[in-house]
Write a structure and sequence with these properties.
Layout: H1 2-21, E1 40-41, E2 44-45, H2 50-58, E3 63-65, E4 74-81, E5 84-92, E6 99-109, H3 112-130, E7 134-135, E8 141-144, E9 148-156, E10 162-170, E11 187-193, E12 201-203, E13 216-220, E14 226-232, E15 238-245, E16 251-258, E17 263-271, E18 277-285, E19 291-298, E20 301-304, E21 310-321, E22 327-339
Antiparallel strand pairs: 1-2, 3-4, 4-5, 5-6, 6-10, 7-8, 8-9, 9-10, 11-12, 11-22, 13-14, 14-15, 15-16, 16-17, 17-18, 18-19, 19-21, 20-21, 21-22
């Protein structure tokens, strides 16, 4: 009898152990790298190459499926969309191979009551994250945010059943090189008069990557933020760059290290309520870790363009160098910014 009880208890505990490892799709939470500057599905950023978005979607329970009817450039999944069985199609840009759009379909629902309940449920989930949706003449609901476009619609089938469609289109650049300069939108070129802490001309490709050749060996995070790079010195040696971000994915620190000479240059950034760079400080340390140069730059933006990027700045600058008197100066900066959509 005791042996039988021991076997039953052991068997019971093994079942509990197995069940504790099983998590339903609605309980799965994305634990990967998030991005506060793009649309997401249940925390999964809707951006990047397939090597990024496929495993990210799989981590929240979406199973990739395939068939002979699949369209080239599309990725098909099945899983729980906010806990309800759904299909997901992710499309990538033909040229860049980066995620372009995502379409969730749920149903078909044979009763209007079930369709209506789930449709309201999806809308509530999305409204909590992205705000109110506007109604269109065809009965669909949509919203356009600074991150992208979302549309909720339904398909009425011949048998009177309905399918719910949720369409996502991310409009923010994948690479955040422009974002690191506190630039908004699909910036193509920035020309700055009287540049101080930036180049006079900066170019970005449609995906947000800086096309300048001064940075090499770039390493990006899965969500397109620059983590490290290098600069080629005239001597042939490389200076190393590292980047640090805050919880809102804003660049707060950039460190340039010349390993050959043992010199470090540290730039730190603070922001105003509009996520513009309010102040930038730069300190240079010698091989003995002594500060030999300190520069403080305070910005006062007085004009902006339609995208919200500043076009006029009254810069206050304080410069200090070891064994010299500090210097203060004021610089008026103006910028001309062009955007990729302007050419479309």
């Amino acid at each position: 009898m005791k042996r039988l009880l021991t076997i039953l208890i052991t068997y019971h505990l093994s079942i509990i152990a197995c069940l504790s490892q099983f998590v339903t799709g609605s309980d799965l939470q994305y634990k990967g790298t998030k991005d506060s500057h793009c649309l997401d599905i249940m925390g999964v950023p809707l951006e990047g190459p397939d090597s990024v978005f496929v495993p990210a979607l799989e981590s929240v329970g979406f199973l990739r499926v395939s068939s002979d009817d699949d369209e080239p450039g599309d990725y098909y999944f099945r899983g729980d969309y906010y806990g309800i069985k759904s299909n997901l199609v992710v499309s990538v840009d033909e040229r860049t191979k980066l995620l372009s759009t995502a379409l969730v379909t749920s149903g078909p629902y044979r009763t209007f009551a079930l369709y209506d309940r789930n449709n309201k449920y999806f809308l509530l989930k999305l409204q909590r994250q992205y705000g109110n949706f506007d109604a269109k003449g065809d009965g669909s609901l949509h919203t356009m945010t600074n991150l992208g476009y979302i549309k909720i619609s339904n398909t009425l089938h011949d048998d009177k059943s309905r399918t719910i469609n949720v369409f996502y289109m991310n409009t923010t650049p994948y690479y955040k090189d422009a974002h690191n300069m506190a630039l908004r939108g699909a910036v193509q070129e920035v020309i700055t008069e009287n540049p101080v802490a930036e180049n006079g001309i900066e170019h970005f490709d449609p995906q947000g990557k800086n096309t300048g050749t001064d940075l090499i060996d770039r390493q990006y995070s899965p969500t397109g933020y620059l983590l490290s790079a290098a600069m080629q010195e005239p001597s042939g040696a490389k200076s190393l760059l590292t980047y640090e971000y805050d919880e809102e994915d804003r660049l707060i620190k950039r460190t340039l290290t010349n390993t050959a000479e043992g010199i470090r240059s540290i730039n730190e950034y603070t922001y105003n309520s509009d996520d513009e760079i309010k102040q930038q400080t730069q300190k240079v340390f010698d091989k003995d870790n002594e500060c030999i140069v300190s520069i403080t730059m305070k910005n006062n933006y007085t004009a902006h363009d339609d995208e919200g990027n500043w076009t006029t700045n009254e810069l206050k600058l304080m410069y200090w160098e070891k064994d010299r008197q500090p210097q203060n100066m004021s610089v008026t900066q103006t910028r001309t910014i062009s955007y990729w959509e302007d050419d479309e």
